[in-house]
Amino acid sequence: MTTTATQDRPGPESRPDRPEQGRSSGAALAVLPHVLRGALAWTDAHRADFALPGDVLEPHTQVNATLKPLGELAQLGSTIRRTTAPGTPEHELAGALVAYAWDQVAAGELLLELLRAEPFAAYPYEIYAAFAGYGLRHEGFEALARPLTATRAWAHTEQHANRQLGLVNSERRVGVVTHTDAGAVLSRTWLGGLSEPWMFEGPSGYALTHTVFHLTDWGRMPDRVPRKIDGYLRTWLPAWADGCLESGQWDLTGELLAVAASLPGPAPEPLLDAVWPVLADVQHPTGCVPETGPPAQDTTAPGPYPFIDCYHSTLVTAFAAALSLRSLRSPGQTDGSAPGRERRTA
User: How many CA atoms lie within 13 A of 179 on its CB side?
Assistant: First the structure.
C-alpha cells in the first residue's frame, strides 16, 4: 500500500504506538469523550480564525483560506450537533459554532451575493446546503439557485465522480430534484468500483472518504452504503488506517475513522479500539491535531501548529469522535431524516 506523507515520516521515538491486535475492548470509548471535548474546545477558542475577511467577495480572495474553512465548520459542526445528545456541552457548543458560521455569512445573504457573482460555481451552493441541511434557509438564495440548478450547464458540469456525488447530496439537503442518479455516480468512483486495495494512496483515500460522506450525508444515513461496499470497507479499513498511522497522516486517519463509524450495522470495534488511542496520543493538550508529521513535543505550547495546518484535522477528529461514540453506544441510530427525492432530469 502506498502512503503520501507530506512531511518526513516520524521516527520510532516520536511516533505514537502502532495499533495492537490485542488492544482491549472498550479502548476507544475510554478516550473518545476527552478527544471530542478537546477538539471542540480548541475550535471554539479559535473562532476568530474562521472569520471571513472584509474583502471576501473580491475576486482576489482565496476561497480555500476563507470560505472553505467556514463551510467545513458549518458542515462538521452541524453533524456533531445532530450526533450528540441534547443538553450535553458538546451538543451546545457544536450548535454555537454553526450559529457563528451562519452569522459570518450574514444568514445566507453573503452566499446569495457569491451565487450572483459566480452562477457557474458549485461551491456557494454546497456551502449553503450545509446550513440548509441543518434547517437554516435563505429564501432569496433558493429563489436564484432554483433556475440555475435547472440549467444544462449545471447538469453537465465536469467533475470527478466523488465531487459530483457531493453536489447530488447538496441538492438532497436543499430539497430539490437531483440532477443525476446517485447510484450511477457512485459506480464511477474509486470506492464504487471496489478498486484494488493496494492501490490506496493519499488522493484516492480522500476521494474514498468523501464518497462515503456524500453518500451517507456525513454519517447521518449509514443504510445508504451498499452491502458490497460495506464489506469491502470493513475488510480494508484496518490496513489503510495502519498505513496512515505509520506515515503520520493524522487528518486522513480521522477521515477513515469517520468512515468506519458511518457504516451500517455493528460498529467495527476492533478497528476503533486499535486506532483511537493512537490518535488520542497525537492530540495536543490544547485539543488540536496536526494534519501530518510528528506531533509537537512541547505539550505546554498554546499554539503548537499554524491554524491552517491543524484546523481541518481538528474538526475531522471531533466529527469522527462524535460518529464513533454514536456507533459504539447506539448501533444503527440515525437522525431519522428522509432521503431527498432522486431522479435523473431531462
Answer: 22
Which residues have CB under 8 Å from 311's CB, separation 6+? 43, 46, 49, 50, 69, 288
Q: What are the tens digits of pLDDT across the range 121-144? A: 999 999 999 999 999 999 999 999
- pLDDT at site 308: 95
Q: For residue 21, what pLDDT band results from cuts at 50, 70 and 90?
A: very low
Evaluate whether 27 touches 277 at the Cβ level (below 8 Å): yes
Task: Look up residue 98 and give its three cell numbers.
Answer: 454553526
pLDDT higher than threshold 50 for residue 317: yes
| Nearest 10 degrees: Cα torsion 207, 211, 212, 216 | 150
Contact assessment for residue 251 and residue 286, using Cβ atoms and an 8 Å cutoff: no
- Predicted pLDDT at 211: 98
d(CA 193, CA 127): 28
Residues 195 and 236: beta-carbon distance below 8 Å: no
Q: Is the pLDDT of residue 333 over 90?
A: no
Whole-angstrom Cα distance, residue 67 to residue 117?
15
Looking at residue 306, its amino acid is P
What's this model's pTM, rounded to 2 decimal places? 0.90
What 3-state class would DSSP assign to 292? strand
Which position has the grid cell 453533524?
79
| 296: number of Cβ within 10 Å | 19
∠ CA 17-245-332, nearest 5°, is 100
Alpha-carbon Rg for the chain, nearest whole angstrom, is 19
Look up cell 450526533; give the residue: 83
On whether the CB atoms of residues 35 and 90 are closer than 8 A, the answer is no
H/E element holding 239? helix 227-246
How many helices and strands in the chain, by DSSP H and E?
Answer: 15, 0
